[in-house]
Structures are given as C-alpha cells and as structure tokens.
Specification:
By secondary structure, this protein is of the alpha+beta class. It has ten helices and 13 strands. The strands form five sheets. A five-stranded antiparallel β-sheet has the order 2-1-9-8-7, sandwiched between helices. Strands 3-4 form a two-stranded antiparallel sheet. Strands 5-6 form a two-stranded antiparallel sheet. Strand 1 (31-36) and strand 2 form a beta hairpin.
Length: 319
Amino acid sequence: MLLAWWFCLLATGVAGLAEAQEDDWEVTARSFVIMDAKTGKILLAHNPQLMLPPASTLKVMTAMYVLEHLKLDDKVVISPYAAAAPPSKINIKPGEVYTVRELLYALLLSSANDGARALAEKACGSEEEFARKLTQKVRQWGAYRTTLANANGLPADHYTTAEDLALLFRRAMQNPEFAKIISTKTYEIQGERELRNHDRFLFTTPLARGGKTGYTRASKNTYVGMFQNGDQAIIISMLGSNKKWADLRALIEKGFALTGNPIAKLEPKEEHLVFAKRHMGNSVKTASGKTTVRKGKRKSRVALGSMAGDTGKRKTKRR
C-alpha cells in the first residue's frame, strides 16, 4: 500500500514537471516556482529545490531581517566599507547619515549594495555577522536550503532555491511596511535624489504588486515578486534565467491560468521601457548634522542605483 502511494506521488510530480516543460510556452530559467500567495500552495514548479546563487533577490531577506530588528527612523552613519561596495549602488559616502527607512527604499528599489552593507553593519556590527544571523533567521522562517554569505547578493559562497525564495517573499509581503516599499515606483531621499524601482512590471502592468530583480554572471537573471488579478494573487520566483522579462511574462500568464482566472497575453513592454532623465541632487547630511553639497561633476540620471546587468550585456555585471 505504501509503495503504491509512493509511485502515485512520483507520477503526479513527473506530470507537473512535464506540464512545465512541454506546454506551448518556453522559459529559459533553470528553476522557478509559481505559488498561490494566499495559501502558499505551489501551482507549478521546475527544479524548485535546485540550489543556485540568489544575486540581489537576497536583499528581500536583508530587508525582512532589518524590519524585525531596527526602527525605520534609526540613524545610520555610513562607513568606508559600506561606501566602497561595488555597483549597483547609490553612491553614499563615508560619514553621511541616512535613516533605516531611506536605506530600505534604496535597497529594494535601486538594489543598493552600499545600502545593504550599511544596514547590515547597523543591525549586527559587521556584514559577516549579519550574513551568519540572517542564515539562521531564514531557516527559522522555513528556507532550509538557503545559506547566505553577505547582505546584498554579490558573488560569494551562497545559494537559495526558487521554493525558498517564494516562501520568504510570501512572508515578507505580510509585513505592511515591506509591501509598501517594494510596491513603490519612485522615492526621493535627502538632497532631492530620486530612487526608481528596478521592477519594470510596476510601470507596465496593473497586475504587479512589487518584486526584486537580480543579476550576476554566475546567477544569470533572478527574480521574486507578486502579481494580483482580482482576488487571485500569485508569487513567482525564478533563478538562472537568460531572458528575464520574457520568462516572467510567460510565468505570470501561466500562473493566472492555473488559478482559473486567466489574463490576456502580456505585451513585451519591459525590454523597451524608457524613462526621462532628471537631476538626482547632490546635497546630503553628514554625521555632524550639517548639510553639504558634493563636489565634482553633477550627474543627470533617471534614479540613484546602477541598472548594471539589467539585460545581462552591460559592462558591470553585478546587481
């Protein structure tokens, strides 16, 4: 009887995988999960427990930990180590002071590696200690196949799974402050500097409720986010994609079809999205409480935070 049950379970799993691979749609991702956001049930998955580099989707976990351990109005003095983080970054400088709230927006919208380091140091004293404690915390939250080595997802000896990512994002979206930040399109921090969300779906479809992108050479494109159609909401996590936006459109369409609330085919808008340039501002507060103006050439850019690696073809390959 037990053996018969096992073969039945195995057959069901194989059938689900075949649906993911042999349907009339194509996805390049090495691993993905489509999850019902309300129940946590996995609707469709491909290699959901394959351990792969998370890239900047790790910043979702960093934000979750920070929201549990710090107050939004806490002040953070930027260290030389935090300021020296590679792109993507918002170019904070040693001695400048930001609130936890400002750095969380930088973390989740502009994928700020320097902001991630600053928050890690504020929460735990060092990024190394933060990564150790964050690994412990995500495992308490149920992400048993996730091990983290830093606060931002830059290349290191760490990994996660699509299943863990979906589970964690579902938990994160139950925090109203996290949900508010991740769904914000643009946000200004001190000095009239504007941050813009890297999740282009927020600008192209009303279905989007916010998500976190990621890219390194090792990880390829990664993503985790939520979409809602009427009273149906799904979470999509994806690792190792060669065609980020195209893969995600296919997964969104498939996800809502599986909920019984199908949507029309999504147009390929994300790859061609263009934003008007605006001045970021260059005045900041320092640890002394004074407001200073940064020296040097004034920058004109859409938003703080490098978009490096957005297509996987630009010179800088970490975000």
